């Protein structure tokens, strides 16, 4: 009992890390049982939360607030040889708050920098970049995330989470399917079953609104389901694998005309109906992905275990009449993000015109069109991202600090079907990034 009193006194004078270290030491010496140490940690946490809520004015059902974000500066260059080289200096800023509530609830929102597109002044759904231009004109902010989440089951075997609102993409997929900046709007359910220390099964389902049409009950939306199996194949966690299969679908997609949603990308075949240009093909693809990672115990110039990852994915849209497939494969050495870590990688990607919806895929992956397709909603020659593309990507990143990563990415991409034919669509794109996390 005296030892417990001493610990209680010390916990008021030391930080959380010192408290935990002291409790662990007393447990190892046999002075405290593990149960007594757990009770003391709970009591200390409760007293801190009570005092913080009193000072901050937070309601007692808010158990924690987390603030975070990042700032990225970028040089973005486009080189084709037929047009004047384009050189842009850009930035991305994101800032968000997550509130953890009692009864396993979570609420979050995030603001982001963004540009208005040429389609009715709407914000770009697949890019958060702002270009430095217009004599220092003020830049826009937009809501990037706004969601509520409930995790009614979370134990050593099962986790079930339900999310509604504007959320991080719940599906595990490359930019063959979703641009990394795409935050869908709707609802999702994520289930995880841990078979043992080495294997886990996940099931993900989601339904997302694509547009609301005031004069029609046939609003376009997207739905999907994905099963995944993640494994670690040895006790030292050297060999890891992940494999997934997903069924995706779009419904009432005839409403996705060029003017109905932000017209950012091109590539899908569209009907030539004057003034509307609805999609010609349907979308209900099968998506398969797999990765294999081997972790070396160490590597020169790298802090910690050194991962080598081989990854590939494949997309097939049986609803399309032609140009219905997409695939990518790549090899990455290392993984940046923590102090004194880095990565280098190569990837080849092909995404045919009707394999998937043009407006959700990678906005950094594009080619030169001497003449924009007549049904694309674009005019004139220029660089256009979307589908109907194939090419190479090489990247390298280095993190000298936990909070900072420097990266270089170079793309060489061409249009599968050039417009016009043999017009020299290949473009080189260089991106140099400096990313600060906070």
Your description of this structure?
By secondary structure, this protein is mainly β. It has 3 helices and 19 strands. The chain has helices at 2-11, 16-28, 34-56, and strands at 62-79, 86-101, 105-114, 130-131, 140-154, 158-166, 185-194, 199-209, 221-232, 239-251, 286-296, 306-316, 325-334, 341-351, 366-369, 382-385, 389-401, 404-415, 427-437. The strands form 2 sheets. A 16-stranded antiparallel β-barrel has the order 1-2-3-5-6-7-8-9-10-11-12-13-14-17-18-19. Strands 15-16 form a two-stranded antiparallel sheet. Helix 2 (16-28) packs antiparallel against helix 3 (34-56). The two termini are 43 Å apart.
Question: How many β-strand stretches?
Answer: 19
Tell me the Rg in angstroms: 25 Å
Mean pLDDT: 90
Output the helix-strand order. HHHEEEEEEEEEEEEEEEEEEE
> Would you identify the regions where 5 or more consecutive residues have pLDDT less than 50?
1-15
Helix content: 10-25%
Major beta sheet, strand line-up: 1-2-3-5-6-7-8-9-10-11-12-13-14-17-18-19
Task: Give the overall shape.
Answer: globular
First-residue to last-residue Cα separation: 43 Å
* Alpha-beta classification: mainly beta
Question: Which key features would you list for this structure?
Answer:
3 helices, 438 residues, two-stranded antiparallel ribbon, single chain, 16-stranded antiparallel β-barrel, mainly beta, 19 strands
């Amino acid at each position: 009992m005296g030892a417990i009193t001493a610990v209680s006194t010390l916990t008021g004078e030391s930080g959380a890390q010192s408290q935990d270290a002291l409790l662990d030491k007393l447990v190892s010496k046999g002075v405290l049982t593990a149960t007594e140490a757990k009770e003391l940690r709970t009591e200390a946490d409760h007293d801190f939360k009570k005092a913080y809520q009193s000072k901050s004015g937070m309601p007692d059902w808010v158990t924690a607030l987390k603030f975070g974000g990042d700032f990225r500066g970028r040089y973005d260059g486009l080189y084709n040889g037929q047009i004047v080289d384009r050189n842009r200096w850009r930035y991305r800023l994101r800032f968000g708050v997550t509130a953890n509530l009692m009864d396993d609830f979570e609420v979050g929102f995030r603001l982001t920098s963004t540009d208005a597109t040429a389609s009715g002044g709407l914000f770009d759904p697949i890019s958060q970049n702002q270009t430095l231009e217009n004599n220092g004109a003020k830049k826009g902010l937009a809501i990037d995330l706004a969601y509520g989440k409930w995790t009614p089951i979370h134990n050593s075997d099962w986790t079930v989470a339900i999310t509604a609102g504007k959320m991080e993409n719940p599906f595990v997929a490359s930019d063959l399917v979703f641009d990394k900046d795409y935050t869908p709007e709707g609802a999702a359910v994520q289930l995880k079953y841990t078979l043992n220390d080495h294997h886990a099964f996940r099931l993900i389902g989601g339904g997302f609104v694509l547009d609301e049409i005031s004069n029609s009950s046939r609003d376009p939306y997207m739905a999907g389901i994905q099963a995944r199996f993640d494994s670690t194949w040895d006790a030292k966690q050297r060999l890891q694998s992940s494999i997934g299969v997903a069924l995706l679908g779009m419904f009432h997609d005839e409403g996705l005309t060029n003017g109905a949603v932000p017209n950012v990308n091109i590539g899908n075949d569209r009907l030539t109906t004057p003034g509307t240009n609805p999609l010609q093909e349907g979308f209900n693809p099968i998506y398969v992905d797999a990765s294999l990672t081997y972790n070396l115990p160490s590597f020169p110039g790298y802090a910690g275990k050194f991962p080598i990852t081989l990854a590939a994915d494949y997309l097939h849209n049986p609803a399309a009449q032609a140009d219905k497939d997409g695939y990518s494969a790549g090899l990455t050495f290392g993984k940046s993000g923590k102090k004194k870590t880095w990565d280098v990688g190569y990837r080849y990607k092909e995404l045919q015109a009707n394999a998937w919806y043009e407006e959700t895929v990678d906005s950094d992956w594009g080619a030169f069109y001497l003449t924009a397709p007549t049904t694309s909603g674009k005019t004139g020659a220029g660089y256009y991202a979307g589908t109907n593309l194939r090419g190479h990507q090489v990247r390298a990143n280095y993190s000298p600090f936990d909070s900072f990563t420097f990266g270089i990415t170079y793309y060489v991409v061409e249009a599968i079907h050039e417009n016009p034919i043999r017009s020299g669509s290949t473009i080189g794109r260089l991106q140099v990034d400096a990313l600060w996390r906070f």
